[in-house]
Amino acid sequence: QVQLVESGGGLVQPGGSLRLSCAASGIIFSASAMGWYRQAPGKQRELVATITSGGSKTYADSVKGRFTISRDNAKNTVYLQMDSLKSEDTAVYYCHARRVISHWGQGTQVTVSS
Questions:
Q1: CB–CB of 108/37 below 8 Å?
Q2: 63 alpha carbon, distance to own chain's centre
């Protein structure tokens, strides 16, 4: 049974930081491409960042220079370090894993507000 469990969301002021974690089980984590997506109210889900099994990273233009994705294969965990947060980063953030098929986490809420 595949499980992707996100944590680390919450309420933060503009300019602040959060680190999201996604613990994976039931997949061959080291061979999986991992990613973070987000969905704001009334908007479609969008890509935030991805990291391949080989460590190559991609970012949405809106988060480049502010967010950093990383992975720890020994812990089966992918992270998203979010710095210089803006109100427009408010969304539910979802962890995604893909090797042969895709899997999604349940999401964690990030709210950026003063």
A1: no
A2: 12
**Amino acid at the residue 102:** S
Instruction: Tell me how far apart the alpha carbons of residues 48 and 60 are, in angstroms, rounded to a whole number.
Output: 5
CA-based nearest residue to 22, from 62, 88, 84, 69: 69
> What is d(CA 68, CA 88) in angstroms, rounded to the nearest whole number?
17
Model pLDDT for residues 76-114, shown as the tens digit of each residue: 999 999 999 999 999 999 999 999 899 999 999 999 999
DSSP helix/strand/coil, 88: helix
Cβ neighbours for 105, distance < 8 A, ≥ 6 positions apart: 4, 5, 6, 22, 94, 95, 96
